[in-house]
Design brief:
The protein is built from 5 helices and 8 strands, in the order H-H-H-H-E-E-E-E-E-H-E-E-E. By secondary structure, it is of the alpha/beta class. The chain has 2 domains: 55 residues, no CATH class; 104 residues, Sandwich (Immunoglobulin-like), CATH 2.60.40. A hairpin with a 4-residue loop joins strand 1 and strand 2. It is globular, with a radius of gyration of 24 Å. The protein binds copper (II) ion (CU).
Length: 169
């Protein structure tokens, strides 16, 4: 952010980044020119704010389950067989969606963010920074087998970040 602001305070960069405004600069009216520059600075601030909200606001993630500080919300969700559940990480921290291997229907395929085929693999991978659902990203899983699925977030399991999906016919 600091870097962007520094750029904004230097005129040549403004010309580069706001070229369409430059066309209307009143070349020989210094007062208007200053007003114009003030306007450009304002415009730059707005565009930075817009940029931020694109990253952290308007990209408000659509999700069936929102991942918060140490929660899945709702932490219990009922869906129908064949439904795809979307988890949205609306937090500033990384989370995971990791199924408890012994707590899913027998016929169901194991699932975890990162695509691991076992709970242990998912736990081990987290230590290497893999299987993460980064802030402002989503994870999806389609449930094909009816039953109850329990899952957790690897780094926040100890804080109680667990959830349940009930899949009905
Ligand atoms: Cu977490």
């Amino acid at each position: 952010m600091k870097e962007m602001k520094d750029k904004g305070s230097r005129y040549p960069n403004l010309v580069g980044t706001n070229a369409r405004y430059f066309v209307i600069v009143p070349q020989n009216q210094s007062m208007k020119r200053r007003a114009f520059l003030a306007g450009v600075t304002g415009a730059t601030s707005i565009s930075i704010a817009g940029c931020s909200s694109a990253l952290f606001g308007s990209e408000r993630l659509n999700g069936d389950i929102v991942m918060g500080s140490e929660t899945f919300n709702p932490n219990e969700l009922e869906v129908k067989k064949g439904d795809t559940v979307t988890w949205a990480n609306d937090d500033i921290r990384r989370h995971s969606v990791t199924a408890y291997e012994t707590n899913i229907p027998e016929a169901a395929e194991y699932f975890a963010s990162g695509g691991f085929n076992s709970e242990q693999a998912a736990r081990d991978a987290w230590q290497k920074g893999r299987g993460t659902i980064d802030p402002k990203t989503t994870f999806k899983h389609t449930f094909e087998v009816p039953g109850t699925y329990s899952y957790f977030c690897v780094p926040h399991e100890v804080g109680g970040m667990t959830g349940t999906i009930v899949v009905t016919e």
